[in-house]
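Mods, move this if it's the wrong board.
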Amino acid sequence: MNEIRADHTAQGSEQCHSWMYAKIARDKLIPETLIVVSESKKIAEKHPQLILSTDKKVNSHIQREDGEWIINTLMIEGADVPFIYKRKKRYKCLKGSRVNLTYYPEIRKVGSLEIETMKVVSVKRA
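Not the wrong board. C-alpha cells:
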C-alpha cells in the first residue's frame, strides 16, 4: 500500500502551491513537464514511517463524537484494519468515494486486547 503518484499534465497550473515546473538551463520553464509535488509527499520524506496511499476506495465511514472532537473511522477496500482520524467538525460521508491517505500504523489497547489501527495524518478525495 506504499504508493506515490506523479502526474505529468499541464492542467491545473493555477494551483502554484501544489505544482512545480521543471527548469532547464537559464531558468526557462517547460510547461509540458509539470510535476505534482504534494504536501503529503514532502511530509513523507521528512517522516519515513508514514505511508502514502492513492486512489483507495472507502467501504465504510463512521463519525462519532468524543467530547469536542469528531472521531472518523474509515474502512478501506482491501485492508482489514480501521483508518482513524480526528476533526473538529463533521464532514460529508466518504463512503463509496476514492481517497488519498497519509498514515502510519498504531497499536491501540482495548481492554486486554491489542488492536492494530492506522493513524491518518491526511485524507483527501482523489
